[in-house]
Structure formats: structure tokens, C-alpha cells
Amino acid sequence: MSRRRATPVFPIFAIATLALLTGGCGQTQQTQKAQPGGGQVPVVPVSVAPVIQQSVPVQIAAVGRVEASAVIQVRSQIAGEIVRVAFIEGANVKKDDLLFEIDPRPYQEALRQAQATLARDTAQFHQAEANVERDKAQLKSAEADEERNRGLNQEGLASKAQSDQSIAAADALRASILADQAATESARAALDNDRAAIDRAKLDLSYCEIRAPVSGRVGNVLIHQGNLVGANGNPLVVINQVNPIWVSFNAPEQSLTEIRRSAAARKLPVRAVPRDDVAHPATGYLDVIDNTVDTTTGTIHLKAVFDNQAGGLFPGQFADVVLTLGTLDRALLVPSEAVQAGVDGQMVYVVKGNQTVEPRPVTVGSSFGNKVEIQKGLSAGESVVTDGQLRLFPGARIRAVPASQVDSQAL
Q1: What is the pLDDT of residues 255-281, one digit of tens each?
Q2: Is residue 53 part of a domain?
Q3: Per-residue pLDDT for 145 more than 90?
Q4: Can you give 128-170 as a three-state secondary structure string?
């Protein structure tokens, strides 16, 4: 009986074990290549933007409130009954338009009385002047008699009594003339007083028509027709002058020096956009810089003036205000989302030529819309990462994709 040779088991087991170990070692090496510390860096999808250099306006943005350039409380300057309201509430009125009418009859009567008094005093003045002329004529005759009687008395042809009588008559006429002249001056003063009374009566009569002192928009009637009003009493209506119109706003105290310097050189343009009418912005210029800084808020109060011909700005409404101070030449700009908070301050990820990134600290300046100025750390023409920074690390390899696809891209 022949014996069959048994096949050794050990070599087969050794070969299988070696193959298993070899495969496991290859898998470990492949895994290491996929990790940051391995041989191959993963590609990270990000969005990028170039660093651009351009001139941009230096602006201050604020929220402002529209104010009337003048608020006039219309009052009556005389007492009387309101017999007419001549405007429509809420309408625009022009300067000197009739607003109210006060009953004029008492003031018409006062004017007639003043005119009658003037006529009477004028007659008395003329009478006083006539008396002066009469006495002057009589004095001339009396002086002639005085001279004649004096000569006759010296010649013995007339008595001394006759001479004394002529002298006394002349002296009496001289005194009468002085009295008549005083009466004339008194009558003249009365005439001046009468004329002043007439002027006052005419002025009071003109106050019966209350007219708009400025052009603007009237509000509600505060005292209606038929009511009695007193001189300088409660307001009858309020007029807001809306052309021109002001927009009041605040700027940071840190900007005060630049605002004053720029305002001294030229009129600074201001753009106001009503919050309820963004399609119709208004353009004006800075008109008032307040004389003190508000220590509570750390701001300076400013006012811009607008002609408001179209009436787009309305007192009391809010508006977004942009004050332009000047132009910043050759500014380096990047999207604001490119700037991140780093360990040592603000930083950006800069894209290198081999499509890897490096973190770089930057000094950030002013904001211009959705862009910020980089004062230090970047050069024109470089590119920075604007989205996807959370996946990055120094030396990470990137692939530029649209911002909308950053989160949907797998590593």
C-alpha cells in the first residue's frame, strides 16, 4: 500500500498572512496621504476675489431726521373775531397769502375817528397860524403909533399918557404873538400825534388780514372761524417751511477734525434717502456744524440743507444720510468678508501661485459699502479667500468655485 505525501500547511498560511499585512500597510499609506500631515494635501473649495486698487469717496453714513428750516406759529396781533379762514389745512402756501381775517369794523371806526381828530386839529393849527399873522399886522400898526406918539410927545404935541398907551399896546401885541406861536407849536404837535394815531389805526386795520409770513406747508387750524382771539394769544396755525429743508444727523467725534477741514475748503455734498421712498434720494450740502460735542454719545450734531423743490423730504421722517468728505486715491480694497479675526488681530488668506493659501495679518482702514480698505499687508493684484475660510490651514490647497457652491463641494 502506497502512502501519499502530506502537503505542508505552514507555507500557505505564511503567504496569506504576508498578503494580508501587505494590503493593510498599503491602505495605511493611502490614508496618510489624504491627511494634512501626509503626502497629499486635500483640495478645499473656496471663493476668491482680487485685491483691487481704485479711488473711492471718503464718506460718513448716518441716520438723520428731516426738519423744517423754519417753524412759524401764526398769531393774531390784534383782538377780535375770526370771520374767515382762507386756506386749506395741510396745503402749501406762499409768502403773503391770506390765512385768516379778523372782523375789521372796530378798526375801521377807529381809523375814521383818528382822521376826524386830524381834521379838527388841522383847523385849529390853521387858526393859530392866522392869529399869529393877525397879531403881527396889528403889532406893526401899534409900533408905528408908538413911534409917532413918542415923537409928538417930545415936541409937546401929545401927552405922555398917549405915548405910554401906544407903548403898552405894542407890548401886549408882542406877548400875544408869542402866545399865538406857542399855540401854533402845540397844534403842530397835535397834528403829529393825530397822524401817528392814523398810522396806528391803519396798521391795526391791516392786521385784520393775517397773511403767511413765509412760504411753507400749513398744518391744522388751531382756532376756528367765529372764535374771539386776543392780541399775541394762542397760535392760530403752524407753518413749516419745507423749501429749503434740513436733515439733522450725528457724526462720530473722531471725524470732527476731518469734517471741519473739508468743510473749510468747499461745500460738502450730502445724500439723503427717505426710508419710505428709497427710489428718490435727495442731494444737498452740509450747512451747520454744532458748536459742541455731545459727551453722552461722543458725537457731533450736523445739519444739511436741501432745496426740496419736489417735496420728497417731509418734516419728521427718517432718512439714511451719506456725507462725502473727499476722495481716497489708489486705495487697496477687498470684500469685507475676506477679513477674519486671527490670533494676533485681523488677517486674510492670500492665494499663492501654486493654488495654496497663507494667512497674512492686515491693517484695515475705512469701509466702502461691502468692501474695506487694506492699509497694510496686501498688494494690488493679489487674491484673497472670501468664503470657505473655516476649512483652511496654512499651506492648504484650494480650488476656486462660486460662493454659492462653497458649502456644497466635498473635500
Answers
A1: 999 999 999 999 999 999 998 888 889
A2: yes
A3: no
A4: HHHHHHHHHHHHHHHHHHHHHHHHHHHHCCCCHHHHHHHHHHH
Q: Are both 222 and 177 inside the same structural domain?
A: no
Q: What is the DSSP letter of 48?
A: E
Per-residue pLDDT tens for 218-247?
A: 999 999 999 999 999 999 999 999 999 999
Residues 23-59: tens digit of each pLDDT: 333 433 333 334 444 456 579 999 999 999 999 888 8
Q: Given 291, 326, 361, which residue is the final one in a domain?
A: 326
Cell 461722543 found at: 298
Q: Please give the Cα distance from 115 to 194 (Å, whole number).
A: 7
Tell me which H or E stretch contains 210. strand 209-211
Beta carbons within 8 Å of 241's beta carbon, 6+ residues apart:
68, 69, 70, 71, 72, 214, 215, 216
CB 66 within 8 A of CB 314: yes
Residue 267 located in a structural domain: yes
What's the total number of domains in the chain?
Answer: 4
CA distance 184 to 194: 15
Range of the domain at 280: 60-67+241-326
| In 207-245, alpha helices (H) | none
Q: Is residue 34 part of a domain?
A: no
